[in-house]
Design a protein that fits this description.
By secondary structure, this protein is α/β, with parallel strands linked by helices. The chain folds into two domains: 5-22 and 74-238, Aconitase, domain 4 (Alpha-Beta Barrel); 26-64, no CATH class. Helices cover 27% and strands 21% of the residues. It contains eight helices and nine strands. The longest helix has 12 residues, at 227-238. It starts with a strand and ends with a helix.
Length: 239
């Protein structure tokens, strides 16, 4: 079943027009990147790295490449480009390493974005990688149509700000803790749901989010953890 999101930490605070190439780049990667380190540990020489695009059948490489575009800017870090964020200890680290640390601790993650989150091509790994990093929800001002659908298909819930709220008007820095309620039970498409944002100084802000689960069948996808689980379970029933 769909569960409420409780005590989630922020993996990234991103701006407007974040494309699927920002989220899941197709180009090459360095030896000191999480993907590069993974391949080096397996005795793959640098000359054989090739690119993310050529290794899209390897989820270990692709999840390490999620949010790793060298031009992406995470607003949690001033003046820093590339796939970096703050880890549980508050220090700068790769988005992949931070996500794995939070996953090991059993802490859910959210990503904040601006307008037209997921613009560009309908790159499927942009949603797959987000899911594999342990992101439960993406909260933005608006979504590109296909990426929104892909997120739902991978079990990640898209939400939109309402009432004029944005990451900027709320003063979000990524240090906040986020909880989203009224997801369990009889949720309807495009429901308005409460979100509690707790700031580092203890202040609490209650806002309303619009769920971008747009159809009844998308609710079923999320109840199964994504479209693949949904299809496989229906096939198992039919057999």
């Amino acid at each position: 079943m769909i569960s409420d999101i409780k005590g989630a930490k922020v993996l990234a605070v991103l701006g407007d027009m974040i494309t699927t190439d920002h989220i899941s780049p197709a180009g090459g990667f360095a030896a000191d990147s999480p993907a590069g380190e993974y391949l080096i540990e397996r005795q793959v020489p640098l000359r054989e790295f090739n690119s993310y695009g050529s290794r899209r059948g390897n989820h270990e490489v692709m999840m390490r490449g999620t949010f790793a575009n060298i031009r992406i800017k995470n607003e949690m870090l001033d003046g820093v480009e590339g796939g970096y964020t703050k880890g549980p200890d508050g220090n700068k680290t790769s988005i992949y390493d931070a996500a794995m640390a939070y996953k090991e601790a059993g802490i859910p993650l959210v990503v904040f974005g601006g307008e037209q989150y997921g613009a560009g091509s309908s790159r499927d790994w942009a949603a797959k990688g987000t899911n594999l990093l342990g992101v439960s929800a993406v909260i933005s001002e608006s979504f590109e149509r296909i990426h929104r659908s892909n997120l739902v298909g991978m079990g990640v819930i898209p939400f939109e700000f309402t009432n004029g709220d944005t990451r900027k008007t709320l003063g979000l820095t990524g240090e906040e803790t986020v909880s989203i309620g009224e997801l369990e039970g009889d949720i309807k498409p495009q429901s308005m749901v409460p979100c509690t944002i707790t700031f580092p100084n203890g202040d609490v802000k209650e806002i309303t989010l619009k769920s971008r689960i747009d159809t009844e069948v998308e609710i079923e996808y999320l109840e199964h953890g994504g479209v693949l689980h949904y299809v496989l379970r229906n096939l198992a029933k039919a057999s």
